[in-house]
Amino acid sequence: MGNDKSKRVGEGSLISFAESLVISSNAESKQEGSRSLTEAEVLGNMFFYVMAGFDTTSTTLSFVFLLLALHPSCQVLLQQQLDEVLGSKAVSEWDADDHLQQLLTGYLGAVISETLRLYHPVAWYARKTVHHTTVTDSKGVSHEIPADTIIMIDVAAIGRHPIYWPSENADTERGECSPALDFEPSRWLKSEAQADQGNGAAFPFSSGHRMCPGKRFAEIEMCAMVARFFSQFSLRLVPEDIDIMQAKSAGRDQAWVEQRTKERAANALFDGLGFGHGIYPKFHTSFEIIPRHQ
Predict the structure, then answer these.
(1) Cα–Cα distance between 142 and 59 in angstroms, integer?
(2) Which of 30, 37, 241, 280 could form a disulfide with 24 if both were Cys (CB 3.0 to 4.6 A apart)?
(3) What does DSSP assign to residue 179?
(4) Mean pLDDT score, 22-45
(5) Residue 81 pLDDT more than 90?
């Protein structure tokens, strides 16, 4: 088996992440000039694989919930698609290859993609050049990059760059304002011709041979979580007590309170972000879970 797998690697056949670790730990299948991984290194890679997949997915879902609470009209569109695709089917009757695939290519998938664009859990990627190469920047200028150069890819900046992601809303003012206000899932619902052309600035799971091995699992997991929740419930922002008191004392109406609540939530998704090995919201944003149609 070891010799067979070594041959497969040499021929460039596709193998899974787990298989690659097993092969790397097999002394018989190692390449000339390299060493096999120790058991501790294999276990360390497996631990990081699981941790990275869990943490990034949970962080993304946190932002999905916050953004949908901030944009109730998007919740309505999402729930309309859930009703069309799932109807009254029990969760046990949901099919990953049919129902979840329809959701991922529809509005639910657009919500996830737009969330990853604005609040990618990993702010940057690091890559190392294998060979000397030449790249051309957005201004058409060529740059020579030597082999063994570490390249930092700023995913957060690319996801918010107005040249690559023009606002669908003419009233949206960019600049020193919260990216949460630029949340427009509809930008991902394109015609077939536009979809085939794609957007080169969209690579939330990286791309190429070193792209995230858990991409498909993460997509299905997030789709199932969002569908399970929003098929039964909705989210609504909860105003701060100080805003309610101020509205009463100044004779302001409910619309003022709602606008003030929205501004606070948007600010929490702008000035209130922290960064560890990924981004996360530092400020508390209150919202309530209510049964649908209530």
Answers:
(1) 37
(2) 37
(3) G
(4) 66
(5) yes
